[in-house]
Amino acid sequence: MRTALWASLTLALMFGDRVAWGQSSVEKSNHWRTIFDGKSLDGWEHVGPGKMVLQDGVMRTEGGMGLLWYTKEKFGDCVVRVVYRTKDKRANSGVYVRIADRPKDPWYAVHHGYEVQICDADDEYHGTGAIYSLSKYTARPVHPPGEWNTMDIMLRGEEILVLINGGEVNDYNPKTAEVPKRTKDYEPERGPRPTSGYIGLQNHGDVSNGAAVEFKEVSVRPLGPDDRPKR
């Protein structure tokens, strides 16, 4: 009996603070795991037109419309952090989450995932922080071109909470949101997305047309006790 009890206590000490998320585990809920650190594109794959250029610790969009996606795992409930900056007010990119399956082209991510937009547009459904054409941004705490921004995307079940530089800009729940009717072919198809999926970055242009966006970090962590509880 004592042997069995000791074994149970040992296992609890070893694994009691590990938090399951997506398809992996990390030791503490406040631990960020970097999946792009500015040094390599290990684990990432590009599909579609254009490319991502890695130079001096920064990844820059070029050409498009293409998609760079992380191939190693799907992510369930977690927080995705993307540190980015724009080069011009015409910059255009986005962060994809909940991509249902391995994308063979960039349009799969559009129609089978969610895009958190990066674009200095006045249209609240298509500007930075909007969940593209589905949920409008509600604030604009975005730094001007040339300065770095931190975007945190909190995924909990079907809900998505978006913060930029610490300010809340979007709170989307597909079960309760009033989603506008789809009017253009390039806008995402309406319908449910999975609660676990791949993530990716959109390249929609380059320096030549003012649409370039640069990234220096993509990190993920599981939801922690201080994160907003599910309502």
Can you tell me about this structure?
The protein has 231 residues and is mainly beta. The protein has one domain: Exo-inulinase, domain 1 (Jelly Rolls, Sandwich), CATH 2.60.120. The chain is 9% helix and 39% strand. It is built from 2 helices and 15 strands. It has helices spanning 2-15, 106-111, and strands at 19-21, 24-26, 33-36, 44-47, 51-55, 58-62, 64-70, 78-86, 92-99, 114-119, 149-156, 159-164, 167-172, 198-204, 213-221. Strands 3, 5, 6, 8, 11, 12, 13 and 15 form an 8-stranded antiparallel β-sheet that branches. The longest helix has 14 residues, at 2-15. It is globular. Mean pLDDT is 87; it is low at 1-28.
Brief account:
This protein is mainly beta and 231 residues long. The chain has helices at residues 2-15, 106-111; strands spanning 19-21, 24-26, 33-36, 44-47, 51-55, 58-62, 64-70, 78-86, 92-99, 114-119, 149-156, 159-164, 167-172, 198-204, 213-221. The strands form 3 sheets. Strands 3, 5, 6, 8, 11, 12, 13 and 15 form an 8-stranded antiparallel sheet that branches. Strands 4-7-14-9-10 form a 5-stranded antiparallel sheet.
